[in-house]
Design brief:
Length: 260
């Protein structure tokens, strides 16, 4: 049996085993992996946006070895990949170390449109994980990636899921456990701010929040700024982390009015 684990707002795959107690302590969510993800079949386009030329070439060669070679688009950096014509069902492969807060927001936008995301993690880069808080993505360690692990990660992303090798999943859960913050004072958000915080956790950008709540984009930015100030967070990734850690997301999502 395999599972998808969601921790720190990102999604990854591992076997249950002794992780059950960690799941209970960290409040992670588990979802089944589909058979097509297990077979590792990909039919859509795969865009590789990695600045490291040697790593980019290696990923291209691995993709060409897949049982059913997908259409492959190579870009010399994440910006070029994000600027390409990505469509629902496509997969974007990028390097976590090359993601900044602006491109992280763009990745969330692409994921919301149905684009699968796979991020390669270099050794020592776990501390950069909060940059992609709330992003549904698969993860693969770049130092140990091979044709098999890449194939499974890409297939899962193309099928709307996400996957991570088990050894990296353990590292991610340990990282989550080490980065729990001390209890905070009681938070007082307005009902509208609570709605916005829920959407932030779900990975929506300011533009998507504005569209979803039928308000202006400037209005959405003001609400996000108010939330960050009240939560004493310097950026939205820290706010999302606190919302997940303290159960605010579940509380506010449950209280959110049903869509008409």
């Amino acid at each position: 049996m395999v599972w998808i684990w969601v921790s720190l707002g990102v999604t990854f795959k591992c076997t249950p085993m002794t992780m059950a107690c960690m799941a209970k302590r960290l409040g992670v969510v588990m979802l089944d992996v589909t058979e097509s993800q297990e077979r590792g079949l990909v039919t859509g386009r795969v865009t590789v946006g990695i600045g490291n030329g040697l790593l980019r070439f290696g990923i291209e060669r691995m993709l060409q070895l897949m049982p059913r070679e997908p259409e492959i688009s190579m870009r010399s950096g994440l910006a070029g990949a994000l600027a390409s014509d990505l469509e629902s069902g496509d997969v974007l492969i990028a390097l976590l170390g090359e993601v900044d807060e602006v491109s992280a927001d763009e990745l969330r936008d692409q994921a919301a449109r149905g684009v699968g995301i796979v991020l390669l993690i270099e050794d020592g880069d776990l501390f950069e994980l909060p940059k992609v808080m709330g992003l549904r993505a698969g993860f693969v360690r770049s130092s140990s990636v091979n044709e098999y692990s890449l194939r499974k990660a890409v297939a899962a992303a193309a099928d709307g899921g996400a996957a991570v090798p088990e050894e990296l999943a353990y590292d991610l859960v340990r990282f989550a456990g080490r980065h729990k913050a001390p209890p905070q004072v009681r938070l007082r958000l307005t009902p509208r701010e609570q709605e916005v915080l829920v959407l932030m956790v779900e990975g929506m950008s300011n533009k998507q929040i504005a569209r979803g709540l039928q308000i202006s984009q400037n209005g959405a930015k003001r609400l996000v700024a108010n939330i960050l100030a009240k939560m004493d967070c310097n950026n939205r990734t820290l706010a999302v982390s606190r919302a997940l850690r303290e159960g605010l997301y579940e509380r506010y999502a449950h209280a959110r009015p049903a869509a008409p």
